[in-house]
Amino acid sequence: MRLLHTSDWHLGRSFHRVGMLGAQAEFIGHLVATVREHAVDAVVVSGDVYDRAVPPLAAVELFDDALHRLADLGVPTVMISGNHDSARRLGVGAGLIGRAGIHLRTDSSASATPVMLSDTHGEVAFYGVPYLEPALVKDEFGLEKAGHETVLAAAMDRIRADLAARPHVTRSVVLAHAFVTGGAPSDSERDITVGGVAAVPAGVFDGVDYVALGHLHGCQTLTERVRYSGSPLPYSFSEADHRKSMWLVDLAADGGLTAERVDCPVPRALARIRGTLEELLADPGLEPHTEAWVEATLTDPVRPADPMARLGERFPHVLSLVFEPDRAPDDPAVSYARRLAGRDDQQIAEDFVAHVRGTGPDERERAVLRDAVDAARADQAVREAAR
């Protein structure tokens, strides 16, 4: 069975104020053409179909167009909701849409109820595990206290139990939306940290033939059977070195697999350039970036006059300007934002306590802070789910 694995469409998202809907529509056309050209048997979409819980109308219309085009192909499609999606909204009409061969899996309680597809070698069970917000699903899985690893492990235990009850020749594919250990993140993914831990080990997915992951925006192979497709388009300058693609996976009769990447059309190259303003305006080595979307980091000791306008004369598609004078990290003039770069909410809260009190929190106080951060995240998740 030949699968096309994609994820993280983020329909409705912009790139530094540049609308991406046209590029997203081009990607949908490319997806449909790839299915035809490569005789794909099933399409899997591993979450974050939309960029936010209540997407703009134009994004909904594009998704509707994608559903019709995929259904017209007669090729089954399995989709799950991601942490950016509203599971309830995305799942509206799932039963009816399923009759057209588009199978939406947005309910955590149905994770172990597979979509059964067949080829000449027998059946393949597709299990859709939507993004599991621990605070919202721990009761569903009978867990007193939950984190990402425990809720995913509970879902996978149910899946393995269902699979064990089927003929031993049944092959299996799991769709999941999570941060799995070994994956490389980028700046454009929403933080899903709970209790200071967001990553789950790849071993959680042991026992299935292929795991089609979503959430991280870089295409990556964690193991032969556990892969991220990445987003089809760039959504931050941290993705400047990404090769945007989908996975074309052939699942053999015995569960063996081969996988190759199919490149996605990207509207414009990304470039991150760094130096003083005069260096960036004069450096001939930057000539290849004149038509790229550019993020410029200025290292001038004093902020120069009209930097964006001057850069725009050479780089007409410059979108982002960062001012980082070359200073030691402990220099008091270093910006607050720069000092916080790369630090999560828990670390920032602990640093604040140390700054105010002169000493950092002890283990009991760290637990209190952790519970407060988790409670705030859970409250936000509940409010988003109810929207």
Give me the secondary-structure topology.
Blueprint: E1 2-6, E2 14-15, E3 18-19, H1 21-37, E4 42-46, H2 57-73, E5 77-80, H3 87-90, H4 94-98, E6 102-105, E7 115-119, E8 122-129, H5 134-137, H6 148-164, E9 171-177, E10 179-180, E11 199-200, E12 210-214, E13 220-223, E14 226-228, E15 245-251, E16 257-263, E17 270-275, H7 277-282, E18 293-298, H8 307-314, E19 318-323, H9 336-340, H10 345-357, H11 363-386
Parallel strand pairs: 1-4, 4-5, 5-6, 8-9, 9-12, 10-11, 12-14, 17-18, 18-19
Antiparallel strand pairs: 1-15, 2-3, 7-8, 13-14, 15-16
Order of helices and strands: EEEHEHEHHEEEHHEEEEEEEEEHEHEHHH
How far apart are the first and last residues' alpha carbons, in Å?
A: 39 Å
Total number of β-strand segments?
19
Strand content: 15-25%
Describe the biggest sheet? Answer: 6 strands, mixed
Compute the average pLDDT: 91
In DSSP terms, counting alpha (H) and pi (I) runs of 4 or more, how many helices? 11
Q: What share of the residues lie within helices? A: 25-40%
**Low-confidence spans: pLDDT under 50, at least 5 residues?**
none
- Based on secondary structure, the structural category is alpha/beta
Q: Please state the overall shape, judged from the principal axes of the Cα atoms.
A: globular
Largest beta sheet: strand ordering: 6-5-4-1-15-16
Radius of gyration: 23 Å
Describe the structure.
The structure is a single chain. The protein has a 6-stranded mixed sheet with strand order 6-5-4-1-15-16. Strands 7-8-9-12-14-13 form a 6-stranded mixed sheet, with helices on one face. Strands 17-18-19 form a 3-stranded parallel sheet. The chain has helices at 21-37, 57-73, 87-90, 94-98, 134-137, 148-164, 277-282, 307-314, 336-340, 345-357, 363-386; strands at 2-6, 14-15, 18-19, 42-46, 77-80, 102-105, 115-119, 122-129, 171-177, 179-180, 199-200, 210-214, 220-223, 226-228, 245-251, 257-263, 270-275, 293-298, 318-323. Helices cover 31% and strands 23% of the residues. Helix 2 (57-73) links the parallel strand 4 (42-46) and strand 5.
